[in-house]
Every structure is written in C-alpha cells, then in structure tokens.
Amino acid sequence: MANFPLSFLVRFAVMKQAGQWLNDFMKNRSRACALILALILCMPLRSPAQETEASIAAATTYLNSRTKGLDRYLKHSDKIRQRLLRKLKRKEEKIARQLAAKDSALYRQYMGQKLSYDSIANLSNDTTALARLSHKKSRVIDSLRGVQQFLQRQSGKLGAASSLAGKAGVDLPYTDKLDQLQQQLGSGQQLDELIRQRTSSLERLAGNQNLGGLQQIQKNVYYAQEKMKAWKQLSDDPDAAEEKALEYLQGTEGFSGYLNTDKAFSGLGNKATAADLQRIGYQTKDQVNGMLQEKLGSSLGAVQQQMGQQIQDYTAQLEGVKGKLSEVKSGVDQARQGVQEARQAKDKLKHIEKPSFRKNPERGKPFWQRLETQYNFQTSRAGTDGLRPAMLDLGASVAFKHTPRLSYGLGLGLSAGLGQNWQHIRFSYEGLTARAFADWKWIYGFSFQAGYERSFRPGNRAYLPEQQNKPQPDNNNDNALKEAFGGQQQTAYIGVMKRYRISSRWSGTLLIGYNFLWQQENLRSPWVLRFGWGK
Fold first, then answer.
1. Which of 12, 165, 335, 506 could form a disulfide with 502 if both were Cys (CB 3.0 to 4.6 A apart)?
2. E strand or H helix at 432
3. Pairing of strands 390-401, 371-380
4. Under 8 Å CB-to-CB from 324, ≥6 apart: which residues?
5. What is the pLDDT of residues 48-98, one digit of tens each?
C-alpha cells in the first residue's frame, strides 16, 4: 500500500464516516451537528506565514501590473508629444513668416518671446532640466508607495516569523522604478503645461491676424491631448490579474491604511498623535509649556493670569468694532454679489461663442479603437434558367470611424452554392468577394450605406454573362487560378441599415439595399437583404 500522509488518512476516515452519517441526517440531529463540525475541522486553513506569503505575492502582482501600465502610458504619451512638437515647430515657423510679411510690430514682439515650441522640444530632450522642473507629486505614485510600504511590512513579518524571505524572493526593486515614474509623470505634465502656455500666447499675439496655421496648431494640440487621455484611461483600466490581486489585498488586515492618500504630517494623516508629531520634529504644546516653565519659573501662573485678563479686555473692545464692521461688511457683500452676477453674465456670453474649430471626438482615440468589426450573411435565389444555384454569402468587414457618424471600410466574402431547390441540394464553391463601403449614421439606429462589391467566380460557371457568349474553352489550356477566379460579377448598391441591441456586448444589423447592376449581371432580383452582427 502506498505511503499516504497521516493527515490524508485522517481526513479520508472522517469523510467516510460523514457519508454514513448523511444517510440518517434527518433522523438524528446530534449526528448532524457532529457532521457539520467534522466538515469545518476538515476545511484547509492557512497558517499566518502562508497568509503573509499570499499577501506578498498579491502586492507584487499589483505593483508589477500598475508600473507596467504606467510605463506603457508614458512611452505612448512621449511619442505623441514628440510628434506634436515636430508639427508645431513647422507651424510656428509658418506663422513667423506670415507675421513678418503682414505686421512688423507683431513680428518683433513675437521674436522677443523666449518660450517657443522649439525651446520646448529642446527641453523635452534635456533630462537634467526636466528633473529640476518636475517636483509635482502624483496621487497614483503615492498610492503605489503605500502598497510598497505594505509589501515591506509583510516581508518583514515573513522574515521574522519563519526566515523565508529569501525563499519567497522578496526584494524591493520598486523604489527606483516609482521615483522614475514620478519624474516622468511630472516632466510630461510640465511639458504639456508649457505647450498650452505657448499656444495661448500665440492666440493672443496673432489671434486677430487671421493666420492659417494658428487654427491647425489648436487642432494638433487638442487632439494630441485627447490621445494622451485615451492612453491614460487604458493604463488605469485593470487587467484580470490586477483586479484579483487588489481584491485579495483589500481583504488583508491593515492594507487599506496604506492606501490613504492623506499625506499630512509626513504620511500620518489625521491619526497623528502628539508623540508622533514630536518625533517627526513638530513643536507641540507640551514642549512650549516646558520652555516657558524654564524661562519664567514660579511666576508662570501670574503671567498666564495677566495675559488672560488682557485678552478679555481686547475681546470686549473687538466686540464694539465688530458691530461697526458688520454694517460695512453687508455693503461689501452687496457689491460683491453685483460683481458676481456681472461675471456670470460674462461667462454665459463666453459660452455662447462658437469654438475656433469643430471637434471630432474620434481623432482623439488610438487607431485600433476607431475600428469596428462586423460579420454578415445573405442568401440569393437560384436562377430561373437553372444555371445559377441558390447561394449563401458569408462576409466579414472592418470599418474605420472617421467621425461619430461617418465610417468607411473594407470586407471579404465567401460564396457557397446550395443547389437549385430543396429537392436538389448540392453544395459548391462559388468564389470570393471584395467589398468597399461607406456608412453614415442617422437617428434611432438607422444609417445610410453605399457600397461596391466585386465577386471573383470560378471561370467555368455557365451563369456568368461572359461565359454565355463564349465558345467552349479548350481543355488543353487549363489554368488553376483562372478556373477558381476567372469569372467576375459586380454589385453597386445603396440602402438603409438598422442597428439593434442583442446583448450587452453584441449588436445586430439588417441591411436592405438596391443593386443598380442586377440586370447587367443577370440576377433574379435587385434587392440586397443582409443580416449581420458585431460588437
């Protein structure tokens, strides 16, 4: 017999006895209680060291995922920023030439400005200068530092409990990484602020000169910022491993305290005691009283009494002054209210003004987020002459969203023959189809769609128009490629598409269109009825 562990044999015996007790569960309550107690005792329990190791693994997984996400966001945002600065430098040179030709005074004012897109581009490549400018803290990095402190505490517990820190592979490589991420975040924010300042200065300088490049600068800056926001949102979205790790950590005792973003009193927050403040270096009330006791000695009580009397006298005098000040304050409040109403009216007038350009929300998204995939199928009836079989067309397409309403795309389709009728079913290959289409969304899920399709049929199909007027081909000149794609048919349609919701992830489509080339291609009906689905 195999050598099983003692704990396994004990559990096996208990579970076997529990199965016997289950038969008379309703007959004997005492045995039922014993069964429940046995099941509870057999449940696997983790030791404190195992719990600590699990929390260390979860914290490590969370930090790895978050740092990789931030690093990916910073790399993409830096590429977007560098590409933006190259465009802005060219546009700024164009504006300078236009100012020199139109207004020499404004051109001299422009040349006197120290900040330019070229200087910002040079600053973006100077890591030393950026390190001096990036002092702004990030709440994201502060929260990650809290997780790092939690990881350090747990690793200390593990080492003190079982000396397994080396076995768990615990180290703290995140300090340098978090410092680097914070510096990069601060540098990026500083560069974005400088770009906004330069754009605003150009708007004030040349806004009334009707310069062509200025509006293009505004567009480039706006869409670059939107792309950075999109990548930031992607980095903030947790993956499955990160969600699981955070869920486990939130159930660990003491973890929530490390995520406290209140960094007052050197990270102690509102829970700081007088002893904590004194240890950090703050001057407490007890320290002040001790210093006064050393200086004044036994006369400290008399001095305190005299100071209290003086404070009461000053308080009585201040009460009289407060009565007069209340009247003045009421008048000032009325004046402030009038000024506030005027400012609100001015703000309303500002909001009425149209933006300098029409914003396209799709341009601020990454390329792959602007793609829409769709799958569809359609059937067509057999020809009355018995030459063309009934067909099933399966297709897949990818659309690019140019604007929230307009999209255009390409697709591929596969045609399969089904035979002439239900009594004569015969499956056959009937070619491939290349598609191009444009779609414009209207309202209530309706859209207008126009498309062109070219089908590459097998060259020996008798229903093709070119085959009906040709003599029989010579079998000695067979070509495999021509046999598979030698014949062609065209479709040019315009129609209406309706989108409807199938589930939270999938939506269905129904296209009804009219084919203008149906007679030319010897089709039985001009109507296109196509069912589809997509995300």
1. 506
2. strand 424-441
3. antiparallel
4. none
5. 667 777 777 888 888 888 888 889 999 999 999 999 999 999 988 888 888
Q: Burial code of 432-452, b = ≥16 C-beta within 10 A, e = fewer? A: ebebebebebeeeeebebebe
Residues 458-485 as b or e (16 or more Cβ within 10 Å = b): bbebebbeebeeeeeeeeeeeeeeeebe
Please give the Cα distance from 266 to 78 (Å, whole number): 32
Pairing of strands 446-457, 390-401: unpaired
CA 61 remoteness from chain centre: 20
Residues of the chain with pLDDT under 50: 1-2, 4, 6, 161-171, 261-267, 280, 349-354, 476-477
Which residue blocks in 3-114 are alpha helix, DSSP H? 6-23, 29-42, 48-102, 104-111
In this structure, are residues 406 and 437 in contact, taking their beta carbons and an 8 Å threshold?
no
Residue type, 253: E
Residue 528: CA atoms inside 13 Å, Cβ hemisphere, count?
Answer: 25
- CA atoms of 412 and 434, how far apart (whole Å): 5
Write down the pLDDT at residue 150: 80
Pick from 292, 255, 257: nearest CA to 51: 255
To which H or E segment does residue 418 belong?
A: strand 406-421
**Residue 399 amino acid letter:** A
Please list, in sequence order, all residues whose beta carbon lies within 8 angstroms of the beta carbon of residue 327, skipping any fewer than 6 positions away. none
Phi, psi of 366, deg, nearest 5: -60, 155
Nearest alpha carbon to residue 83 among 93, 75, 73: 75
CA 223/CA 359 separation, integer angstroms: 9
Q: Which two tokens stand for residue 137?
A: 């803290």
Q: What are phi and psi of 214, to 5 degrees?
A: -65, -45
pTM value is 0.63
* Cα–Cα nearest to 172, from 56, 257, 53: 56
* Residue length of the chain: 535
d(CA 54, CA 59): 9
CB of 117 closer than 8 Å to CB of 92: yes
Q: What is the pLDDT of residue 101?
A: 83
pLDDT of residue 437: 97
Calpha distance 24→20 (Å, rounded): 8
* Cβ atoms within 10 Å of 406's Cβ, excluding its own: 16
Burial class (CB in 10 A: 0-12, 13-18, 19+), 77: buried
d(CA 187, CA 74): 10
